[in-house]
Design a protein that fits this description.
The chain has 151 residues and is α+β, with helices and mostly antiparallel strands. It has three helices and six strands. The longest helix is centred in the middle third of the chain and has 17 residues.
């Protein structure tokens, strides 16, 4: 059985810097709120301009935020000279995205030298309840020796 890699000492700084360069996360107003080895969380306030026709958070926004937390959770466990790219994901939409704000959590499920798998959960947070609204399983590629990619 392979021994899991330990996070590089600067993993948090690398994730924070990369997240800060994500124009999509800025566009939707997402904030990185937790970054630990193998776990990343992002929070997003409710905004009417991010909803679909029924007033629920749009599935595209949910998928975008889940993709980010899955990728960044994987990046926390990658070597310092690696970049991360999503190569596949599956989303399950479980309930309407209705809440005051949303919490997205990504966790590394399988750590590998070239491929990693992360699972994500999206929660709608209201005044009185927290509800799981979506899940994602993502496959991520550990990318090395590409000058055009920087994380």
């Amino acid at each position: 059985m392979a021994v899991p890699r330990i996070a590089e000492p600067d993993f948090k700084e690398r994730v924070e810097q990369s997240f800060a360069r994500q124009a999509a996360m800025k566009l939707i107003g997402a904030q990185l709120t937790r970054c630990e080895p193998g776990v990343v969380e992002v929070e997003l306030p409710f905004r009417a301009d991010l909803t679909q026709q029924h007033g629920f958070l749009h599935a595209g926004i949910v998928s975008t935020a889940l993709d980010a937390v899955c990728a960044y959770s994987a990046l926390t466990m990658m070597p310092a000279d690696a970049a991360v790219l999503t190569i596949e994901f599956k989303v399950n939409l479980l309930a309407p995205g209705k809440g005051d704000h949303f919490l997205f959590r990504g966790n590394v499920t399988k750590q590998g030298r070239t491929i990693m798998v992360s699972d994500g959960q999206a929660f709608a947070v209201g005044e009185t309840e927290v509800k799981l609204v979506a899940t994602m399983t993502a496959t991520l590629m550990v990318v090395k020796d590409r000058e055009d990619l920087q994380d």
